Amino acid sequence: MLIIDYGVGNIGSIINMFKKIGVEASLSSSKDEILAADKLLLPGVGSFDKGIQNLKSSGLIEILNKKVIEDKTPILGICLGMQLLMDSSEEGHEQGLGWIKGQVKKFDFLENEEKLKVPHMGWNVLLSPQKNDLFKDFKDEDRFYFSHSYHAVCENDDNILAQTKYGYNFTSSIYKNNIFGVQFHPEKSHKYGMKLLKNFSEIPTC
Amino acid sequence: MLRTRVMPCLLLENGSLVKTTNFKNPTYIGDPINSVKIYNELEVDELIFLDIKASTNNTPPPFKIIQEIASECFMPFSYGGGIQTLDDAKRLFDIGLEKVSLNTAAYYNPKLITQIANIYGTQSVIISVDVKKTLFGHYRVHINDGKKKTKHTPFNYVKKLEEYGAGEILLNSIDKEGLMDGFDLNLIQEISDAISIPLVALGGAGEIEDIKKAKKAGASAIALGSMAVYQNRNRGILINFPTQDELKKILK
Questions:
Q1: Which domains are present in chain A?
Q2: Checking DSSP bridges between strand B47-51 and strand B77-80, what pairing results, if any?
Q3: Residue ranges of chain B with per-residue pLDDT less than 50
Q4: Residue A114 pLDDT more than 90?
Q5: Contact A166 B71 (CB under 8 A)
Q6: Domains identified in chain B, total number
Q7: Do B98 and A191 touch (CB under 8 A)?
Q8: pLDDT tens digit string along A129-187?
Q9: What part of B 164-203 touches A (C-beta under 8 Å)?
Q10: How many CB atoms are closer than 10 A to CB B118?
Q11: Is B108 exposed, middle or buried (0-12, 13-18, 19+ CB in 10 A)?
Q12: What is the pLDDT of residue A111?
């Protein structure tokens, strides 16, 4: 497991959890190491533009395109890392990686009876996620920690892996072939997050 | 749907877990790492650790212990005490913390709030605000582990903190802390009316009903000190926490 280091902090807790579940994981921004990895994890906290600019200035976008699109290496994006998989975001002007079609939008409760606070911060559940190796042995009461103001809106419903309700139902997990994204933080979600990261580590690499 | 967050707030002194009363008389509770392992099993929503001496002694956060706690902590983890610079905060985020909590530093150097928020997002900055009533019953903000009284009313102070980029206010009542006879609900109400960011209520919870009352008064989240380390009001030491089912029932 290689955790992509592109300077958008907070990877300590991911490394801690991989250690706990006995999955070998390292942090790197080296092109050679990324090319050699059999699983990739794209973490991220912060703004959309900063995230994509950091990926660009680290010179990693070309390598990631090759690894993920051509070699079909499984990749999991977490939080901002998930949002970067999309085309674009209301939060910024930069183009995303564009591997999954759609936009990232801010929570908008204008049409909602219930005006909720943004960010959506705290523990929440997934509404009937699709059958997928990532959610193997998933139970309805499994809960995950969220902390975000923006969420993905997929162009194609087939890319929706799970939804969550906060005022309205939004997409909290996305996928396409070998590409996975979760809006929540498995690394801060107790045994439920451990199960998810373990599942991801066991997804076969082509 | 999102349930109100309820979390232990634990105090560190010289690397040990302690519990105070009205910010005084720290009583030894135990080893922080062992307690984190128990809170993992209990699946608490978050953990807050505050070092009560770092600021007064002008020492940096105890990074080694925080690192050890973080490596056993599989939930959002916040730390406060002795954070004075952006570098201190950066080091804590690198360790894997979800949020940092500022108190005295935010008072003297509120720009630090903005600096941290600009890089890590506002949701990553908690400002802990300690409040004590004057002899005439007026609320005043205290800093330096409650020892230094300022001229600020909490109502105006928290508004300013929000403008600087605070993501959350951890509101503690010095008069209620450790007594286990209920929150200062007036204070919670007054402060929650002043801000649009989440308010975490701390100081005074003695039974599960108190959690419900604090929520009703306007708290977005509730932190428990004594209730997380004492069995009951007789104060027999026991690392414990209301179960998810109990919380679900009471916070419906």
A1: 2-202 (3.40.50.880)
A2: parallel
A3: none
A4: no
A5: no
A6: 1
A7: no
A8: 999 999 999 999 999 999 999 999 999 999 999 999 999 999 999 999 999 999 999 99
A9: 196, 198
A10: 14
A11: exposed
A12: 86
Q: To which H or E segment does residue A104 belong?
A: strand A102-106
Cβ of B135 under 8 Å from any chain A Cβ? no
Q: Tell me, what CATH number does B109's domain have? A: 3.20.20.70
What residues of B are annotated to the active site? 130
Read off the tokens for B161.
């903190």
Helix (H, G, I), strand (E, B) or coil at A138: coil
> Which residue range forms the structural domain that includes residue B232?
5-250
* β B99-102/B148-149 pair status: unpaired
Tell me the chain B residues in contact with residue A191 when contact means C-beta distances shorter than 8 Å: 43, 74
Question: Do residue A10 and residue B2 have CB atoms under 8 angstroms apart?
Answer: no
Share of chain A above pLDDT 70, in %: 99
Q: Which residue of A has its CA nearest to B41?
A: A190
Q: ipTM exceeding 0.85?
A: yes
What does the pLDDT read at residue A7? 80
- Would you state the pLDDT for residue B1? 60
CB A164 within 8 A of CB A186: no
Q: Is the dihedral of CA B104, B110, B112, B113 positive or negative?
A: positive
Instruction: From chain A, pick out residues whose CB is under 8 angstroms from the CB of B124.
Output: 45
Give the tens place of pLDDT for each residue, B180-225: 999 999 999 999 999 999 999 999 999 999 999 999 999 999 999 9
A13 Cα to chain B: minimum distance (Å): 4
Omega before residue A119 within 30° of 0, cis: yes
